[in-house]
């Protein structure tokens, strides 16, 4: 195993990223690059913008530095292009055409820096009938069929926060695209544009389901399939204290252990008898209602029954396994997820808390060799 280099904060150390401030998936993608060691400079707009989150608590801006540039000012674009000259990556999340109108579109940026990876984060993509429409996570995942898969039959689809669209289908695909394009740029000397659309990424996440659908192994409706809550041994069950246990005992050997620990070995109908799945679900639900979540957690502790307590956001950091791994950390008074994944030779860490708008202008001007950025400080003092 490689010996960790403690002087290097992640495998992307030395990579320079310019993030044009936005909300949602763009900042999260930039945070992930920053967590991996990249020097991310967030270009904030004067007066802020976006969602009403106190910058002191916006964890998606950790490990970054911030400068303030008014892109609508006469010299705003040139200030950003000075950064682009020295950057490896740029991330923007405007509607199609806005970056071009502001003078920082891919054509202009590549004229200054041909090796630049230009990452574009949108919901609908750069082309298509909806490209210019406003939208949010819920609309993007709705048209891909993904939202319609989630929830109980006969009830409205369950909204999975903004995790499936913004972050899984958006941020993570943007980061994968950026890393792939960065690899290509370093090998060829040629940068390119990464068009990361949430509709594309979210649709891609359903690849396995589409295969099962084509093979006849998935019904195109909620709560009728192996992985969507339709299966009585893959779902959530309420406990005596109003909490829940999550069950994922899909394979036969895990199911056998689950049924044994639940105390239903002699009562449960055959799991392969789909006609009796309703009966099996009722039996499992009734048994879970006889004890509290804590009691059931103790019953399944150390087993291969694939059962876990459903915890809240505040409870999760205290789970023994997550605590042992350091999955959550406290930094600057904020409990937050630690950087992921983990690396043996270039470990990651949280180097700084949420970047405060404009707080790093002087340091970035020095470190990146962009003296024009200091003019912003002079104007603000005036």
Main attributes of the structure:
382 residues, three-stranded antiparallel β-sheet, 35% helix, alpha/beta, elongated
Question: Gist?
Answer:
The protein is built from 14 helices and eleven strands. The protein has 382 residues and is an alpha/beta fold.
Explained architecture:
With 382 residues, the chain is of the alpha/beta class. The protein is 35% helix and 14% strand. The protein has 14 helices and 11 strands. The protein has a 6-stranded parallel sheet with strand order 3-2-1-4-5-6, sandwiched between helices. The radius of gyration is 25 Å and the shape is elongated. The mean pLDDT is 94.
SSE inventory with pairings:
Layout: E1 16-20, H1 25-35, E2 39-44, E3 64-68, H2 76-85, E4 89-92, H3 98-101, H4 106-112, E5 117-122, H5 137-143, H6 163-188, E6 192-197, H7 198-205, H8 207-214, E7 234-238, E8 244-248, H9 252-262, H10 277-288, H11 293-300, E9 307-309, H12 320-325, E10 328-331, E11 334-337, H13 361-367, H14 374-381
Parallel strand pairs: 1-2, 1-4, 2-3, 4-5, 5-6
Antiparallel strand pairs: 7-8, 8-9, 10-11
Number of strands: 11
Tell me the structural class: alpha/beta
Q: What distance lies between the first and last C-alpha atoms, to the nearest angstrom?
A: 55 Å
Low-confidence stretches: none
Q: How helix-rich are the residues, as a percent range?
A: 25-40%
Written as H for each helix and E for each strand, in order along the chain, the element string is EHEEHEHHEHHEHHEEHHHEHEEHH
Strand order, biggest sheet?
3-2-1-4-5-6
* CA-based gyration radius: 25 Å
- Share of β-strand residues: 5-15%
Apparent shape: elongated
Please tally the helical runs, counting DSSP H or I stretches of 4 or more residues. 14
What do the pLDDT scores average to? 94
**Largest pleated sheet:** 6 strands, parallel
């Amino acid at each position: 195993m490689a010996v960790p280099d403690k002087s290097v904060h992640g495998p992307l150390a030395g990579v320079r990223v310019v993030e044009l401030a936005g909300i949602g998936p763009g900042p999260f993608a930039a945070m992930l690059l920053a967590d991996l060691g990249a020097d991310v400079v967030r270009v904030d707009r004067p007066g802020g913008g976006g969602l009403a989150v106190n910058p002191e608590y916006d964890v998606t801006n950790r490990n970054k530095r911030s400068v303030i540039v008014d892109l609508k000012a006469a010299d705003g674009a040139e200030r950003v292009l000075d950064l682009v000259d020295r950057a490896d990556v740029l991330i923007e999340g405007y509607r199609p055409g806005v970056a071009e109108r502001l003078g920082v579109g891919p054509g202009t940026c590549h004229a200054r820096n041909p090796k630049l990876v230009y990452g574009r984060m949108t919901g609908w993509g750069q082309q298509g009938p909806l490209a210019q429409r406003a939208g949010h996570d819920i609309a993007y995942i709705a048209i891909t069929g993904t939202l319609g898969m989630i929830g109980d039959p006969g009830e409205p689809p369950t909204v999975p926060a903004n995790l499936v669209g913004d972050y899984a289908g958006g941020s993570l695909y943007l980061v994968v695209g950026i890393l792939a394009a960065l690899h290509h740029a370093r090998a060829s000397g040629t940068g390119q544009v990464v068009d990361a659309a949430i509709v594309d990424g979210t649709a891609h996440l359903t690849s396995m389901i589409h295969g099962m659908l084509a093979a006849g192994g998935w019904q195109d409706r909620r709560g009728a399939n192996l992985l969507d809550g339709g299966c009585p041994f893959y779902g959530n069950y309420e406990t005596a204290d109003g909490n829940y246990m999550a069950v994922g005992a899909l394979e036969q050997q895990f199911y056998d252990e689950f049924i044994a620990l639940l105390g239903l070995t002699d009562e449960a109908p055959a799991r392969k008898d789909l006609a009796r799945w309703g009966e099996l679900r009722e039996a499992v639900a009734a048994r879970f209602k006889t004890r509290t979540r804590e009691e059931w957690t103790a019953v399944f502790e150390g087993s291969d029954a694939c059962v876990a307590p459903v915890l809240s956001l505040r409870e999760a950091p205290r789970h023994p396994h997550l605590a042992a791994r350091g999955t959550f950390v406290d930094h600057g008074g904020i409990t937050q997820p630690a950087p992921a994944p983990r690396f043996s030779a270039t470990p990651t860490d949280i180097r700084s808390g949420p970047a405060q708008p404009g707080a790093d202008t002087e340091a970035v001007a020095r470190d990146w060799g962009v003296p024009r950025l200091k003019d912003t400080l002079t104007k603000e003092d005036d």
